[in-house]
Amino acid sequence: MFDHPDFALLSRALAGSPVTVFFQDSSGQFVWFVNLQSIWASRDLIGATDADVFDPASVAAFAVAKQRALETDDKQSVEVVPLKETVSGQADCHLRLTIEAMRDEASGEAAGYLCSSIDVTKENQRERSLQALLLEVSHRSKNMLAMVLSLSAQTARTARTIEGFLRSFTGRVQSLAKSQDVITASDWRGARLQELVDQQVVNVVQRDGVRLEVTGDNPNFTPNAALHIGLALHELVANAIVHGALAQGDGLIAIECTAVGRTDDRGPGAWIVWHETPGPAVIPLQSDKSFGNTLLERIVPTAVNGTGSLSFDADGVTYTLFVAASEFG
């Protein structure tokens, strides 16, 4: 036991810290506390027992730790959960206790247990949040790898040369990376259309003689939708560089987005229309064997629960994509 000077020194040493020190006698009753923190400050617990303070599983774990401390003369640690009535409504409270067995100097018999306590509730919550985040990152990484593998296989299937494959595949992977940067910057909430246009289009068309017009609404899309819409924009830009508006000095690319309520049988969503002029000298994406055509008219629309259509004529290239409202972030 501490006499009064010792209590005063201990209290001064613990002042400002999150640590509470308490003593239990050999029968398990709380005898005194110093520097009350967390549940210990909620009410007077002197004279209470473990069963008055902790849930049944914690009572058993605390008893095992005290017995081991007594048998080994080594300090033991255990995490315990207080009863709801003890924490006065605080949800999911966890305490980490460090226990040291105290013996009577004369007889050597157990005199009680000197314990320190610290609230680890927030620490546990952070660990759970981190674990959830790591699981989410793992899930998204697997999805991304699956997309890359699919892009690799599909690109290789239609590529005529190794150089052509490398050029197309590298561009598509870089497109995914650009969209992923936007998604990461938003804490995985997704990406707005304007952000995707900036990454996939604006940085490419900033050249003399090419105009870019972006009008209409600016919805936020889920991460999955953002990746696929980014791919569609990349595919259109890549085609425009070689055959369309970006291959000519007076090109114009107009991107318009219109958010709508129920339309036909599609429900609410957003129409994204890409129109570029003048028209292409050749029409590389019209071939049924073109992966670019498949990506724009089948893969991307399916991924965003919508529809997509691509048309070429002398006036220009028009791509229309409907994105369901379920893909709004």
Structure report:
With 329 residues, the chain is an alpha+beta fold. It has helices spanning 4-14, 50-53, 56-72, 121-158, 162-185, 193-205, 223-242, 291-303; strands at 19-25, 30-34, 76-80, 95-103, 110-119, 191-192, 211-216, 220-221, 252-260, 269-277, 307-313, 316-324. It is built from eight helices and twelve strands. A five-stranded antiparallel sheet has the order 2-1-5-4-3. Strands 7-9-10-12-11 form a five-stranded mixed sheet, with helices on one face. It has a two-stranded antiparallel ribbon with strand order 6-8. A hairpin with an 8-residue loop joins strand 9 (252-260) and strand 10 (269-277). Helix 7 runs antiparallel to helix 8 (291-303). Residues 282-289 have low confidence and may be disordered.
SSE map:
Blueprint: H1 4-14, E1 19-25, E2 30-34, H2 50-53, H3 56-72, E3 76-80, E4 95-103, E5 110-119, H4 121-158, H5 162-185, E6 191-192, H6 193-205, E7 211-216, E8 220-221, H7 223-242, E9 252-260, E10 269-277, H8 291-303, E11 307-313, E12 316-324
Parallel strand pairs: 7-9
Antiparallel strand pairs: 1-2, 1-5, 3-4, 4-5, 6-8, 9-10, 10-12, 11-12
Helix pairs in contact: 4-5, 5-6, 5-7, 6-7, 7-8
List descriptors.
329 residues; alpha+beta; five-stranded antiparallel sheet; five-stranded mixed sheet; 8 helices; 43% helix; 24% strand
Write a brief caption for the model:
By secondary structure, the protein is α+β, with helices and mostly antiparallel strands.
**What would you call the shape?**
elongated
Ends apart, CA distance between termini: 61 Å
Arithmetic mean of pLDDT: 87
Note poorly predicted spans. 282-289
**Gyration radius from CA atoms, angstroms:** 33 Å
Number of helices: 8
Helical amount: 40-55%
Number of strands: 12
Overall structural class, as computed from helix and strand content, comes to alpha+beta
Please state how the strands of the largest beta sheet are arranged side by side: 2-1-5-4-3
**How would you spell out the order of helices and strands?**
HEEHHEEEHHEHEEHEEHEE
Our estimate of the beta-strand percent is 15-25%
> What's the main sheet like?
5 strands, antiparallel
